[in-house]
What does this fold into?
Amino acid sequence: MISLANPTRFLGLVDRVVPWLTAVTLILLGLGLYLSLFVAPPDYQQGETVKIMFIHVPSAWLAMFGYMLIAVAALGTLIWRHPLADVAAKTAAPIGATFTFVALVTGSLWGKPMWGTYWVWDARLTSVLILFLLYLGLIALWQSIEEPGRAGRAAAILALVGAVNVPIIHYSVVWWNTLHQPASVFRMGGPSIDPALLTPLFVMAIAFTLLFVLLHLIAMRAEILRRRVLALQQTQVERAALVEA
Amino acid sequence: MLDLGPHASFIIAAYAVTLVAVAALAFFIVEDDRKQRRILAELERKGIRRRSAAPKPTPGKPKSKRKTGA
It folds into this structure.
């Protein structure tokens, strides 16, 4: 594990893992979509709209997973100054933001036929919207500071402050009275969802998670290469200036 | 044919938004990766390399001695 702290070794690992991970992800996504659209039965209350759950719930899980990953990487940046920590955090932000956006939109499209409204300002929906805004804030911060080290430290502080929102999202359905249903998969006493619906949900959740990991690895590789390109271009400019002098 | 019931438009819209958002994300990430590889390869072709990636001295060839004084 320690050897992976070396960006060159990490790039070698990514090059080896990406083709296999792409194949497994695509197979699982295909299987998950088949189970979700053609095998899963309609819910006795929600009918066929339960099919939205198979994309909404994994996206919502990954929205929180992505932010926790950024928060852990932020600790790596601030405490251990790990060379890959800032790269991991920076590249996870757009992926997490996309899954948060998907969770918000699919939730809204599920809410209209079930609750009669696209949006309510209740604790769960509002805290997820705040998560989306935090992601956008982090992306903006990384974009606005040119020097990667400074940008990484500033973003790490914001990420750690915003991490308090993740448990609020998770427990919002317990602490406050919301339209959103309480946890029905990870709960005391086991899942309350029928196995016929739970199986496609788990397959889709694993497929989405692998997709997140795959995209994150490729984005990290691109970011490491971008920093090398910047360093080389800087060297080129310095050499040119020396020659002129 | 897939029968999605009376709320089919909501289900189709949810899957379509997910597909477009995830596909766009994947496209931008993969394109960015390709672009950085291309630029790096171009710089290396011009002979601009990182010190650690520079060609190592051939075995048997004497290493250049570091200057110790002015």
